[in-house]
Amino acid sequence: DTGVSQDPRHKITKRGQNVTFRCDPISEHNRLYWYRQTLGQGPEFLTYFQNEAQLEKSRLLSDRFSAERPKGSFSTLEIQRTEQGDSAMYLCASSPGLAGGSFTDTQYFGPGTRLTVL
Amino acid sequence: QQQVKQSPQSLIVQKGGISIINCAYENTAFDYFPWYQQFPGKGPALLIAIRPDVSEKKEGRFTISFNKSAKQFSLHIMDSQPGDSATYFCAAGYNNNDMRFGAGTRLTVKP
Known about the structure:
The complex is a heterodimer.
Chain A lengths: L4 E3 L2 E4 L5 E6 L6 E7 L6 E7 L2 E5 L7 E4 L6 E5 L8 E8 L12 E2 L3 E5 L1
Parallel strand pairs in A: 2-11
Antiparallel strand pairs in A: 1-3, 3-8, 4-5, 4-9, 5-6, 7-8, 9-10, 9-11
Chain B lengths: L3 E4 L2 E5 L4 E7 L7 E6 L6 E6 L5 E4 L2 E6 L4 E6 L8 E9 L3 E4 L3 E6 L1
Parallel strand pairs in B: 2-11
Antiparallel strand pairs in B: 1-3, 3-8, 4-5, 4-9, 6-7, 7-8, 9-10, 9-11
């Protein structure tokens, strides 16, 4: 396994259109995270899955955003009725998940999907 | 949203010099402090990480110094090389999932 992969790498869309991104985590990683990164800023947490369960969502994740991880493997992030403010790099990360542990474990990032909303 | 403050915003270092980037955090619940390196158009790549029970960790030319009482940690890059030119992010994680990132430091190493 070569790491986290994301598809597409770039997406240009018109305002009001819906877009969907896919993330394939490192195999056997239980946890999957979505982040958004705008130019000159660090990644901002959006949401997180433990297997197929979505356990946490940031306030940044408005009703227009939805994420799924139906079989506990790959995940999709959909943005409905895109706005120009949605233009950003969308990053996916995965981590092994420490079984029974209470410490935060290492997150490995994919290359990201750069979204441009015209 | 930003609970981790990073400085400086940009840094220029001569080849062979030491690059030092600092971060400060507020939430004492943080239990994991990684540094990520990011090149343009790429996702962040884990460089080195430390937990609060250790005051220093070294991996090759990269060292993290951690001061729990001051709630500060820093990245030192020894013998900086032009290939180290990138944006560096500190982060702090807690509750087994939540990770907060600094705003980043753009490092330029001049040959």
